[in-house]
From TrEMBL, chain A:
<dbReference type="Pfam" id="PF19277">
    <property type="entry name" value="GPAT_C"/>
</dbReference>
<dbReference type="GO" id="GO:0016287">
    <property type="term" value="F:glycerone-phosphate O-acyltransferase activity"/>
</dbReference>
<protein>
    <submittedName>
        <fullName>Glyceronephosphate O-acyltransferase 2</fullName>
    </submittedName>
</protein>
<comment type="similarity">
    <text>Belongs to the GPAT/DAPAT family.</text>
</comment>
<dbReference type="GO" id="GO:0006631">
    <property type="term" value="P:fatty acid metabolic process"/>
</dbReference>
<feature type="domain" description="Phospholipid/glycerol acyltransferase">
    <location>
        <begin position="134"/>
        <end position="263"/>
    </location>
</feature>
<dbReference type="GO" id="GO:0005778">
    <property type="term" value="C:peroxisomal membrane"/>
</dbReference>
<dbReference type="GO" id="GO:0008611">
    <property type="term" value="P:ether lipid biosynthetic process"/>
</dbReference>
<dbReference type="GO" id="GO:0031966">
    <property type="term" value="C:mitochondrial membrane"/>
</dbReference>
UniProtKB/TrEMBL annotation, chain B:
<feature type="binding site">
    <location>
        <begin position="340"/>
        <end position="346"/>
    </location>
    <ligand>
        <name>FAD</name>
    </ligand>
</feature>
<keyword id="KW-0007">Acetylation</keyword>
<dbReference type="InterPro" id="IPR006094">
    <property type="entry name" value="Oxid_FAD_bind_N"/>
</dbReference>
<dbReference type="GO" id="GO:0071949">
    <property type="term" value="F:FAD binding"/>
</dbReference>
<dbReference type="GO" id="GO:0008611">
    <property type="term" value="P:ether lipid biosynthetic process"/>
</dbReference>
<keyword id="KW-0808">Transferase</keyword>
<feature type="domain" description="FAD-binding PCMH-type">
    <location>
        <begin position="174"/>
        <end position="356"/>
    </location>
</feature>
<dbReference type="InterPro" id="IPR016171">
    <property type="entry name" value="Vanillyl_alc_oxidase_C-sub2"/>
</dbReference>
<dbReference type="InterPro" id="IPR016167">
    <property type="entry name" value="FAD-bd_PCMH_sub1"/>
</dbReference>
Length: 626, 630
């Protein structure tokens, strides 16, 4: 891959659609595909893979256990397992990749103005795929994510991955089957304590890794982020994936964090409505066809950043004693040890931090941050000025910003505004959030709902960038609330915020000191604060930044406060989770109407969920099954 | 004939020229010790020394002081740049090996122009003067024992064959060496020496064949007492053979090949054939828990011994009868087996013997890849039908073995070779970069051997194995004896390397092999080794529940300032990898000082404590202070 051929840009990105627009879709779909495979791979078919799972010693152990518990005969359990595997397993076929490639080529060329991919990332990935089993770990912001990745892999001769997908996708007529043959395998949502299902799934995943069948792709966040903010990782899949390494069945595993960002997300309005309690449409082929209108819009450019492959072996050094597996058969089902759970959790959080660090942000993300602090509308000039100020700050904070080259600032602003016509409009030099059009006179509640939908849509674009500011912003808040300038006091408040918000923002467990240090030093380097041996103080010209940073966190703080208030005032000692989610919404609605609460983000169901998780984690509430 | 010759020569004062003369007379693969014995007389200055001393000195005359094996046998690249193996002792001796150069340069990135020759001779001034315990030495002499503090004698017994030991010798660097060498000639001599050592508080280090690869013979740096090397080489007689019970009672200093030859003359064998058997001693086998190539028929050393006599500072330990098995508490033999010279000196051993087998047949099988080969060996073990020996080389070793093929004399043979290669790679579709070879050795009466052979080849066929002829098999085993010589050749051209081993359950064999080989490659890269290393393995023994795996690891060290240190770091990492993959600390090399740090983790703290308490009881003064194991 030479830079010229790919039309690489100065910072290592190239627009992969450029070449596609020059050639025909058909010749693209039928291009010769010669990936360099993993050198330790055993060449096996999808059906052999399934057979290996069914015949595995592990499954046989688990079936033995279930037989003892349930009196079901072995044959029946084996049949069940076989059926589960049929439901689950992928059936990757190059022909279907070509078909999908053909379709994607058409769609992507029409909805995106460009798809920027980092070239060196592709080169590193190609290298990594040959050396060790590779796990692709993209963030999950859109249904497009996995399609785009497979599309890129096909285009650049990289082994097509198999992908862990949610079972609703499978339910779609025809489409489900196409996905299956394009490498998707399907996992049920609520597995609970179904031992056999866990066994089949985990052995299936392990066999893929162990044999180096194909790169394995899954969303470490577990599901699509409705808020576009990183979700705290789910660990189950990662445990399964890493086990072959811990047991020495593979020498190493390369984890490749992938950061996907959309200038405009296809699902933007769906997301906001979902957060306000409007159920998401069921994934059906019919719904998909109806959604075609979405494809007529322009969604700007998209960025895919392939991060540096992370060697699990390097990370694990000294943290795990592999000899724990030496005295039992490796196939024997075993609970992961405590050290293992901690390691995997730390690793998962680290991966998400890497995704965040690499994610490419646009001018629009920064504009959204500013807009949310000016809901009543803001002069375009002022917006431009503040966005440019924020750009400098974000860059100091290490944000991965891409700013169009050779384009004036005002053009950047106006093109962003016009791309996001569903969120903002510019009238008479002033920029406002756009409220959905609807039928005539509305109730107060409906009015609030509409405003909230607009705010949440805008907030999702701020959320794409919020990780850049969280640590300095928490320091800013901690400095304001601390009893003194003493570092100890500020750190104390900081750790409280960190813990409280650890369902909201991804923080690596047990690294409060590092997080604090990071926040402080970013502020210090930006000239916002000064530090002495024991004290931290705001510099004279830093006040503005501190206020701005605090305002970024304000909606979160207010939301948490209002939920606390609800729990204290309104509810009895116990309440059901379902009741909670409906009651809290009307509680907040009232407060918004009365003006006691300002932030429309308080209505986000995601926040409510996170508050509960935080309180649960901090032992302020307890959860029981009824 | 040899004996009479030696006697006549022993009176002649002629120096070294007679060495070459007598050796050229030697007809057998092994040197006749009696021949070399004669030569030493002329070379050893103190004529007052007893005859037995000459023998031991003579051994060091015909062996390299800074490399492996016999002085007359070595690999070299001749003026034409072709490799050849000198001497007359081995099948390979005197032959040209046309492909070795290309393999050597290709594998290591070595170059015949870049030489790293060894110091030609031992610089005696580099040897520190002996720290003598005079009263002890005088008591020894008074007791009529052979003693020497000649620097060459001392240096020769100060090392085994670890890379760092040989590398230092080649560079002329001499560390701490024993201060005195003493040669007992029987059990009673040993008792006397140990008694005197206790009396005068000196440190005794037993020395057998000197083939240790665990730093076991290195003098502990912290030892302040006079260090005495107790060389058992003169205790080399077969004391009796019991044909009714098929046992032999042998002095522990006997060298493997001599024991086997002498028993053969009587129609018997022990069948114990470790790769080092040309030079290693019976006592050394006991002290390290040695394993023989043909253990599938004859067993390992612990299966072979019926009775052991060992002299300790507390006195003599032995059992009271020759019963084949006893239930008398923990088997005291197992305190001795593997004690690595920390408790005493093994002086006499009663061993099982067997009639020399009627028929021997080599064989070999080619597999499409290593996985298939391991699966086959596993199946052979499951069916408990392993031949006397079965070994599986990986692809790198297969290629290595190929590089050691001597020049073929006729066009016909080379045509046949070409045809074979064509059949395997083109017709059968084996990838030459993946295929691997198992070598086999069958023993027994003819009919049974042929039947057995068929059974094994049938199993092999199920795993895609193709019979590849007796010749390949035989060459495979011959290579195990010359491979150690190859390291010296490598060291002449900036290539250092070594082998190490482990044992591991069957289901982990493949994973362990892959991971250790990969770890070696990765560690070399990370530590700045400029060229990809040779990292290869073979499965050398099969058991019911697992296998023994042997690794060879070598690299070109040009451009490195401290190659030995890097070598050691990589080997250390490889051992960590072995342990992390469920392999043992050692299958038969022992622990010595090289692998001591992992002992506690290997046998548990309590286990180590048990061993320590035995040591404390048996040897409270730490007379046997070689510092191995514990």
């Amino acid at each position: 891959m030479s830079a010229d051929a790919l039309g690489a840009e100065a910072d290592g990105f190239f627009d992969m659609l450029e070449e596609r627009r020059r050639s025909s879709d058909l010749s693209y779909a039928f291009r010769s595909f010669n990936p360099l495979p993993y050198r330790g791979a055993t060449d096996i078919s999808a059906s052999t893979l399934n057979r290996m799972v069914l015949e595995s010693q592990y499954l046989s152990y688990v079936i033995q256990e279930i037989m003892l518990e349930s009196d079901e005969p072995r044959e029946m359990l084996l049949e069940e397992a076989s059926a589960l595997l049929d439901e689950m397993s992928q059936n990757l076929q190059l022909g279907f990749i070509r078909l999908l490639g053909y379709a994607m080529n058409k769609v992507f060329k029409s909805v995106f103005s460009s798809i920027h991919v980092n070239e060196d990332g592709l080169t590193r990935l190609q290298q990594a795929i040959q050396e060790y089993p590779v796990i692709l770990l993209p963030n999950h912001r859109s249904y497009m994510d996995f399609l785009v990745l497979s599309y890129i892999m096909f285009t650049y001769d990289l082994s097509i991955p198999v992908i862990a997908a949610g079972i609703p996708l499978m339910g779609m007529k025809l489409i489900g089957e196409i996905f299956r043959r394009s490498g998707a395998f399907f996992i049920r949502r609520a597995i609970g304590s179904d031992k056999l299902y866990w066994a089949v799934l985990s052995e299936y995943v392990r066999t893929i890794v162990r044999t180096g069948y194909a790169p394995l792709e899954f969303y470490i966040e577990g599901l699509r982020s409705r808020t576009l903010k990183s979700l705290t990782p789910k660990l189950g899949m990662l445990h399964m994936v890493l086990e072959p390494f811990f047991k020495g069945e593979v020498f190493d595993i390369s984890l490749v964090p992938i950061s996907i960002s959309y200038e405009r997300v296809l699902e933007e309005s769906l997301l906001a409505h979902e957060l306000l309690g409007v159920p998401k449409p069921k994934e059906t082929t019919g719904a998909l066809l109806k959604a075609r209108t979405v494809l007529k819009e322009n969604y700007g450019c998209m960025h895919v950043f392939f991060g540096n492959p992370v060697s699990v072996r390097d990370l694990v050094k000294g943290k795990i004693n592999h000899r724990q597996y030496n005295l039992v058969p490796r196939d024997l089902p075993m609970k992961p040890s405590k050290e293992m759970q901690e390691f995997v959790s730390g690793l998962a959080h680290t991966i998400i931090r890497l995704q965040e660090r690499n994610v490419v942000l646009s001018a629009w993300n920064l504009m959204a941050v500013v807009l949310l602090q000016n809901l009543q509308g803001i002069d375009l000039d002022l917006l431009t000025q503040k966005t440019l100020w924020l750009r400098r700050l974000a860059q100091r904070f290490g944000a991965h910003l891409r700013w169009p080259e050779n384009v004036s600032d005002s053009e950047v602003m106006s093109s962003s505004v016009s791309l996001h016509h569903s969120v903002v409009r510019c009238e008479g030099g002033r920029v406002y959030l756009v409220e959905e059009e609807g039928p005539g006179p509305v109730t107060q509640e409906e009015g609030v709902f509409k405003q909230a939908a607009a705010v949440l849509m805008c907030a999702s674009y701020r959320n794409q960038a919020v990780h850049v500011f969280t640590r300095p912003a928490m320091v800013a808040v901690a400095m304001t609330t601390a009893a003194s300038h003493r570092t100890d006091d500020i750190f104390h408040n900081f750790t409280f915020l960190l813990e409280l918000f650890s369902n909201e923002f991804v923080v690596i467990p047990g690294q409060a000191v590092q997080d604090f240090e990071e926040g402080c030093s970013l502020l210090q380097e930006s000239g916002v604060i000064g530090r002495s041996d024991e004290e931290i103080y705001v510099k004279d010209n830093g006040q503005e930044t501190i206020i701005f940073l605090r305002a970024i966190l304000q909606p979160f703080i207010e939301s948490y406060q209002v939920v606390f208030r609800y729990l204290c005032e309104e509810s009895s000692q116990t309440l059901s989770e379902k009741m909670f989610s409906t009651n809290i919404r009307s509680f907040i609605m009232k407060l918004l109407i009365s003006g006691e609460v300002q932030s429309y983000e308080c209505l986000s169901s995601d926040l409510h969920k996170n508050v509960l998780s935080a309180l649960l984690r901090m032992d302020a509430v307890t959860k029981t099954k009824v | 004939l040899p004996l009479s010759l030696s006697l006549s020569l022993s009176l002649s004062p002629s120096p070294s020229p007679s060495l070459s003369l007598s050796l050229s007379l030697s007809p057998s693969l092994s040197p006749s010790l009696s021949l070399s014995l004669s030569l030493s007389l002329s070379l050893s200055p103190p004529l007052s020394l007893s005859l037995s001393l000459f023998l031991s000195l003579s051994l060091q005359e015909i062996m390299k002081w800074n490399g492996w094996g016999y002085s007359d046998s070595r690999f070299l690249f001749n003026k034409k740049g072709q490799a050849e193996f000198t001497g007359k002792r081995y099948r390979l001796s005197g032959l040209i090996l046309p492909s070795l150069k290309d393999w050597f340069e290709g594998t290591f990135g070595a170059n015949l122009q870049h030489r790293s020759p060894a110091t030609p001779s031992l610089n005696l001034s580099a040897v520190a003067p002996p720290h003598l315990n005079q009263p002890f030495v005088e008591d020894l002499k008074a007791a009529g024992l052979s003693v020497s503090h000649d620097p060459e004698d001392r240096v020769f017994r100060a090392h085994g064959h670890c890379l760092h030991e040989v590398f230092a010798l080649r560079e002329g660097r001499i560390g701490r060496v024993p201060d005195v060498v003493v040669w007992p000639s029987c059990h009673n001599d040993v008792e006397k020496i140990v008694e005197l050592a206790c009396k005068h508080n000196v440190c005794l280090i037993p020395y057998g064949g000197g083939t240790s690869v665990s730093s076991a013979l290195e003098c502990p740096r912290e030892e302040t007492r006079s260090i005495v090397s107790l060389d058992t080489s003169q205790m080399n007689r077969i004391l009796w053979i019991d044909e009714k019970n098929l046992t032999a009672h042998v002095e522990a200093g006997i060298i493997g090949q001599d024991l086997e030859r002498q028993l053969n003359e009587r129609g018997y064998c022990t069948g114990h054939e470790p790769d080092s058997m040309e030079f290693s001693s019976l006592g050394g086998w006991v002290a390290t828990r040695a394993s023989g190539m043909k253990k599938n028929i004859y067993g390992n050393i612990e299966d072979l011994v019926v009775h052991i006599k060992m002299v300790t500072p507390r006195g003599v330990i032995e059992k009271s009868c020759l019963g084949p098995r006893m239930s008398t508490g923990p088997d005291i033999h197992h305190f001795i087996l593997g004690s690595e010279g920390t408790l005493g000196v093994v002086t006499e051993v009663t061993l099982k013997i067997r009639p020399v087998p009627e028929y021997q047949k080599y064989g070999s099988v080619v597999f499409p890849n290593f996985q298939q080969g391991v699966a086959c060996l596993r199946e052979v073990a499951r069916q408990r039908c392993a031949p006397a020996s079965i070994r599986l080389m990986d692809n790198e070793q297969f290629q290595f073995g190929h590089a050691l093929k001597p020049q073929v004399s006729s066009i016909f043979t080379s045509f046949l070779d070409g045809l074979k290669k064509f059949y395997i790679t083109k017709f059968k579709g084996f990838d030459p970069h993946h295929l691997c070879v198992a070598t086999l050795l069958f023993e027994g009466d003819r009919g049974k051997v042929l039947q057995h052979e068929k059974q094994v080849y049938d199993i092999a066929a199920k795993f895609g194995g193709l019979a590849a002829g007796e010749d390949n098999g035989q060459r495979g085993y011959m290579l195990t004896f010359v491979i150690a010589y190859l390291r010296d050749l490598g060291m002449d051209y900036y290539v250092i390397g070594e082998s190490f081993e482990t044992s591991v359950p069957w289901d982990r064999v493949l994973d362990l092999c892959r991971n250790v080989k990969e770890r070696i490659v990765r560690e070399c890269k990370e530590r700045g080794v400029q060229f990809p290393p040779l990292s290869t393995c073979r499965v050398t023994q099969t058991y019911d529940a697992g296998a023994c795996v042997y690794f060879y690891f070598a690299f070109n060290y040009r451009g490195l300032s401290d190659p030995v240190h890097i070598y050691e770091q990589v080997e250390h990492a490889a051992r960590e990898e072995i342990l992390a993959n469920g392999g043992s600390l050692s299958h038969h090399h022992g622990v010595g000082k090289l692998r001591k740090e992992w002992m506690k983790a290997s046998v548990s703290g309590v286990g180590l404590g048990m061993l320590k308490s035995v040591k404390e009881y048996v040897d409270p003064q730490n007379i046997f202070g070689n510092g191995n194991l514990l």
